[in-house]
Amino acid sequence: MNNNRSGLTRTHNPFKKTKFPAFPVTLLLGIAGLFAIARPALAFENRGATGRTLSTVPSMTQGPTDPKELESFLDEFFARQMEEHHIAGAAVSIVKDGELFIAKGYGYADLEKGILIDPEQTIFRIGSVGKVFTWTAVMQLVEQGKLDLETDINTYLDFRIPDTYPEPVTLQHLLTHTSGFEDRWFGSATTDANDLLPAREWLVSNMWKRVSPPGDYARYSNFNAILAGYIVAQVSGQPYEQYIQEHILEPLGMVHSTAQWPMPAELRPYASVGYTYADGAFQVFPDYTGQPAGLPSGAHQASVTDMARFMIAHLQGGRYIDGNISEVRILNEATVRQMHDTLYTPDPRLMGTAYGFFDWSDNGQRTLGHTGYLPPMHSVLLLLPDQNLGVFVNYNSDDVGDLTVQHFGFQRAFFDHYFPATEVTPIQPPAEFAERAGRFVGTYNTISPYTTLVKIGGLFGGGYTVEISDSGDGALLFKMMGREWRFVEVEPLYFRQAEAPFAIVFREDDRGRITHMFTDLMPQYGILKLDWYETPGFNRAIALGCVLMFLSMFPVAAIRLVRNRRLSIERKSAVRSATVATLIIVVVSILNLVFLVGMVWGVMKAVQNILLDPPLIIKIVLGLGVLSAVLTAAAVVYAVLAWKDSYWGFTYRVYYTLVTIAAVAFVWFMHYWNLLGWRY
């Protein structure tokens, strides 16, 4: 093990960081980069799967044993990371053997008022970690026989999920994110309480698209928990937030927690302010309220010591006891064991998803985890059942980098410090693999919004973009998030890291073409292989080429305007159609350039909180795109007439045709990225 003070490196580290590639700076970089703010939870669990060499035998000498030593480790970690990432406040709680081992706060809950973070009282937004409350509630009702995980969810709903595919969606599909629903964010929250809708009305009018058959592969989507929470309310006869309060929070004594949004008045003095960092100073994040239907997907708020109680209950088989609570049970022990077991895996050789938790094993330790993001706050939950250990971390600021991402940030530092990695026997690539490497090479992407304009995030890495390339020495290189991993073929379509335990499996269609990739690194995603025309590189080249053609139209049009003024009256009449043709393509060029600039401006406003409705500027700009598409059709007609009737000389006809082709390509570009029309 490398004894670097940061704890962020180790021998055979599979998460070695490399530099990000440099891309041309274009207007579209601004658009796509700003949209790529989705922070889906990542996850991992360790099981004795076929072909795996990762040790799962817990060491009695591993893990934190001395609170003072642990406090020193935490103090150093948070001091360094909070300064580096400009974080106003953070808190952590760690439980061990059924008790709170340590809880600490760092920085400020309110900078203006000088209020420090209090781990017992300061309330954070915990984001998607709150989904675990939803899944716990579902399993409570399963225990009572009121829900069945394999029953069509339409049985429990008072509206109907569209029959996009013949297979029904079940609670099991929701739990494992294999329902096939895409993800989306716009319209999930509002700054005006008058815009809040009853849960059923919002769900019916905002039905998220089913984009793959249920059970086909995992696709993380907030809609899974939204539907599950609605089912909890329908079956229990209580509003979701009331059910969580009465059946989880109150029994566990979580007095500084709530599933209500806005939170109850008596808790508001304890709520941490949210912050962003801009222009060298912390900025208060604007307040907003989530649509009631969306609460189950991660609108919960809690202090880190309250989350410690929840972790203890899960680690103690559903049971909780302390000095003030004699004994309570939120789940039966058998149900907890079931929740912590693997419910779905895309391949028996890979780790998968538990009942609402993700498999998140690391350094030989079986780990259940979930991350959370509710603008602007981030959180991460880790349960190590074999160690009877739980960790919860919350940050109140937006730019935390990879601090809450699986295997990076806090988890990387904590695991390398307390559970050092054991050596893994390196494996050698098969000699003949070089002949097959090409079929796996390509660009893969996990981005879930397929039918909304948020898809544009995939243009510059939104979701998780993975590049698979041939190493040249019989292995595959897996590049993601600026890191690079080397994988070696062990069995057909099954690869393992050469000097580490993580694996990937490819899926092929009936013609032998690679269509998907699955990995221990991201078990909640099936990673789709992109066709050449879907790759970010191709689309960036198309966009840049179109922009250059549109810009060139201005000097060319100006020159022709001057020339036309010198023509005789008779000649001007003869070229009237040609003039209209030029005017149309000039207007198309202007509209498309304004579209790009306006979209950047709009995204800069929308990126402040993508849960809100798109700002007016985006809605207007999308209208310009529709107008441009209509005029582009007219330009195509005039391009044909120009050749038929010889409007201009040969050179200008070729040029006009090229600009028209660029306009058509831009229409395709807008359509592909869901920017043609109001698709949000």
Structure description:
The protein is of the alpha+beta class and 680 residues long. It folds into three domains: 27-56 and 64-418, 3-Layer(aba) Sandwich (Beta-lactamase), CATH 3.40.710; 433-533, Lipocalin; 536-672. It has helices spanning 27-35, 67-85, 131-143, 171-176, 199-205, 222-236, 240-249, 304-315, 333-340, 409-418, 536-565, 569-574, 576-606, 616-645, 650-672; strands at 89-96, 99-110, 115-116, 124-125, 189-190, 257-258, 275-278, 281-284, 289-290, 301-302, 319-320, 328-329, 358-359, 368-374, 377-384, 389-395, 442-445, 465-470, 476-480, 483-491, 494-497, 503-508, 514-519, 527-529. The strands form six sheets. The chain has an eight-stranded antiparallel β-barrel. A seven-stranded antiparallel beta sheet has the order 3-2-1-16-15-14-13, with helices on both faces. It has a three-stranded antiparallel beta sheet with strand order 4-10-6. α1 (27-35) runs parallel beside α13 (576-606) and α3 (131-143) crosses α6 (222-236).
Domain module count: 3
This entry's quaternary arrangement is single chain
| CATH H-level superfamily title of the largest domain | DD-peptidase/beta-lactamase superfamily
What share of the residues lie within helices?
25-40%
Fill in the CATH topology of the largest domain. Answer: Beta-lactamase
Name of the CATH architecture of the largest domain? 3-Layer(aba) Sandwich
Write the layout of secondary structure elements.
Blueprint: H1 27-35, H2 67-85, E1 89-96, E2 99-110, E3 115-116, E4 124-125, H3 131-143, H4 171-176, E5 189-190, H5 199-205, H6 222-236, H7 240-249, E6 257-258, E7 275-278, E8 281-284, E9 289-290, E10 301-302, H8 304-315, E11 319-320, E12 328-329, H9 333-340, E13 358-359, E14 368-374, E15 377-384, E16 389-395, H10 409-418, E17 442-445, E18 465-470, E19 476-480, E20 483-491, E21 494-497, E22 503-508, E23 514-519, E24 527-529, H11 536-565, H12 569-574, H13 576-606, H14 616-645, H15 650-672
Antiparallel strand pairs: 1-2, 1-16, 2-3, 4-10, 5-9, 6-10, 7-8, 11-12, 13-14, 14-15, 15-16, 17-18, 17-24, 18-19, 19-20, 20-21, 21-22, 22-23, 23-24
